[in-house]
Automatic annotation (TrEMBL):
Coiled-coil residue windows: none
Name recorded for this polypeptide: DUF1501 domain-containing protein
InterPro entries to which the protein is assigned, alphabetical: Alkaline_phosphatase_core_sf, DUF1501, TAT_signal
SUPFAM superfamilies: Alkaline phosphatase-like
Annotated PROSITE patterns: TAT
Length: 452
C-alpha cells in the first residue's frame, strides 16, 4: 500500500500519519487496478500505434431524466388539434425535408451532423435511467444483479486506454430522486466496473461545476502533494530497490492527466462561452441541473482516454409548464450539444465519438390543465451524432397525434447494438459470463442499418 502525503508531513522516522491518503491500488470509484492491469493497459495503448499515439472509440451518453416531450422537440405535430399540438412551431433545418421544434435553432442549422430518432418503443413507465444505460428493462437478470450498463461492459471488455484515466466516468450531479443521477449500474459484473464519479465521496473536492470553483485550490494542493512526495522519495532513493514495473506504477498513480481533464479552467473563455453555463438552473426540483459545462468536461475526458461518459442533464418531467420547461432546457441543450459536436468535429474526434441524448420515455399527446404533458412510455425519441454514423436524417415517425410509432419502430436494444458497434463490439456475438457462468449478449437488438 502507498501512503501519499496530503499537507505538511516529514519524510523520515517521525512521519505523521494524519495527513496521509492510503492507496492500495489505483482506485477509480470502486474499481481497483492491480499493477498487472496497469501494465497491460499501457502495453495495449502503445501497441495501437508505432509512435505510441492512441486513438480510441468513445460514447457520451446524455440522459435527459424525467422524459423529454418528443412531440415538442424533434417532430412537431402540425396537423394535430391545438390541445395536442401545443405551442411550438416546426422550423426548417439544414437537411431538406427535416423539420424540428423552434427551440433548437442551432441544431437546425447543423442538422447534417445529427440524426433524429422519432419512434423509440418498449419503454416502461418508471423514472430511472436503466434502459438508457443498458438497453434492457430493469427486471432483466435482476436475481443475478441486473444487466451491466454499457460503460461497465466496455470497461470489462476493452479496459483502459490510459492506465491513469478510468474507462467509464459518470458526471451526473446528485439528485433528490436518486435514479435520475444514475450513471450506469454494474449489474452482475459487480463493483469492480463501477463508473468513476468526480463528484462522488472519494473525490468530493474535484467537483468542477461553476458553483464549486473555490475547491480548485484544494485539487491543486492534492496534486502538488503527489508531486512533492514523488520528488522526495526519488531524492531519498526510496524507489531504488523497487523494480522498473513498480516505478512505472508509481508514475501512473501520481499522474495529473485525469485532474487536468476535469479542470475546464484550462479551456479558453471563448470555448467556455460557446458551451455556456446552463444557468440559471430552472425547473430542477428533485432532478438534475442543466450543467452545460459537463459536456465540455466530457469532451476533455474523451481526449484524456475515457471510453464511456454518462451525464444527467436537466429535469424533463413536465407535468406542468411543459412549454416553458422546453424553452429553458431545450435552449440550453441546443447551445451545449452543438458546441460539443462542433468541438469534436474540429478536433478530428467526431467519427470516433458517439453522442446520444435521450430520456426514459416520452410525454402524452394531450396537454393537461396545467399546461403540461404526462408520462407516455408508448413512444419516445433520441438525437445522435458522430461515431462514424450516417447523419442528416430523421428515422421513424409517429402518428398524427404523436401517440404511437407509425413507421420504423426502434427498440432500445437496436440503439445499444448500434452503440456497441460504434465501439467495435458486435452485440450479436460478443458475450460476458454472468455469475452462473452463462454467457449473456450485450444487447437484444439489431444494428440500425440507417446509421451504419
Amino acid at each position: 500500500m502507498l501512503s501519499i502525503p496530503f499537507g505538511r508531513v516529514r519524510m523520515c522516522d517521525g512521519i505523521s500519519r494524519r495527513n496521509f491518503l492510503k492507496v492500495g491500488a489505483l482506485s477509480f470509484g470502486a474499481m481497483n487496478l492491480t499493477l498487472a492491469d496497469v501494465l497491460r493497459a499501457e502495453a495495449a495503448a502503445k501497441n495501437q500505434d508505432p509512435f505510441g499515439r492512441t486513438r480510441h472509440k468513445a460514447i457520451i451518453n446524455i440522459f435527459l431524466g424525467g422524459g423529454p416531450p418528443h412531440q415538442d422537440m424533434w417532430e412537431i405535430k402540425t396537423e394535430a388539434p391545438k390541445e395536442i399540438r401545443g405551442e411550438f412551431k416546426p422550423i426548417a433545418t439544414k437537411v431538406n425535408g427535416v423539420q424540428i421544434g423552434e427551440t433548437f435553432t442551432r441544431i437546425a442549422s447543423m442538422a447534417d451532423k445529427f440524426a433524429f430518432v422519432r419512434s423509440i418503443v418498449g419503454a416502461r413507465d418508471g423514472h430511472d435511467a436503466v434502459q438508457c444505460t443498458t438497453g434492457f428493462l430493469k427486471a432483466s437478470l435482476a436475481p443475478l444483479g441486473g444487466r451491466p450498463s454499457i460503460g461497465s461492459a466496455v470497461a470489462k471488455l476493452q479496459g483502459s486506454v490510459d492506465p491513469s484515466v478510468p474507462p467509464f466516468v459518470g458526471l451526473a450531479e446528485r439528485t433528490q430522486h436518486v435514479p435520475w443521477s444514475d450513471s450506469g449500474q454494474t449489474g452482475f459484473l459487480g463493483n469492480a466496473f463501477e463508473p468513476f464519479k468526480p463528484s462522488g465521496p472519494d473525490m468530493a473536492n474535484m467537483v468542477l461545476n461553476a458553483t464549486n470553483k473555490d475547491h480548485l485550490p484544494d485539487r491543486k494542493k492534492l496534486l502538488a502533494s503527489f508531486d512533492d512526495m514523488k520528488r522526495t522519495v526519488d531524492h531519498a532513493g526510496g524507489l531504488r530497490g523497487a523494480d522498473a514495473a513498480t516505478e512505472r506504477a508509481f508514475d501512473v498513480l501520481t499522474s495529473n492527466r485525469l485532474v487536468e481533464a476535469l479542470d475546464i479552467s484550462k479551456e479558453s473563455q471563448k470555448t467556455r462561452d460557446r458551451y455556456g453555463s446552463g444557468k440559471p438552473y430552472q425547473f430542477q426540483y428533485d432532478g438534475a441541473p442543466t450543467v452545460n459545462e459537463h459536456l465540455l468536461v466530457a469532451r476533455r475526458l474523451v481526449e484524456a482516454g475515457a471510453r464511456v461518459i454518462t451525464l444527467s442533464y436537466g429535469r424533463w418531467d413536465s407535468h406542468g409548464q411543459n412549454f416553458n420547461l422546453v424553452r429553458d432546457h431545450g435552449g440550453k441543450l441546443d447551445q451545449c450539444l452543438t458546441a460539443l459536436v462542433e468541438d469534436l468535429d474540429v478536433r478530428g474526434m467526431l467519427n470516433d465519438t458517439t453522442v446520444i441524448a435521450w430520456g426514459e420515455f416520452g410525454r402524452t399527446p394531450m396537454v393537461n390543465k396545467e399546461a403540461g404533458r404526462d408520462h407516455w412510455p408508448q413512444v419516445s425519441c433520441a438525437i445522435l451524432a458522430g461515431g462514424g454514423m450516417k447523419m442528416g436524417q430523421a428515422i421513424g415517425s409517429t402518428d398524427r397525434t404523436g401517440g404511437t410509432a407509425k413507421d420504423r419502430p426502434v427498440a432500445f436494444g437496436d440503439i445499444f447494438a448500434t452503440l456497441y458497434h460504434n465501439m467495435g463490439l458486435n452485440a450479436e456475438t460478443t458475450t460476458i459470463n454472468d455469475p452462473t457462468g452463462r454467457p449473456q449478449y450485450l444487447a437484444e437488438g439489431k444494428v440500425m442499418p440507417e446509421l451504419v
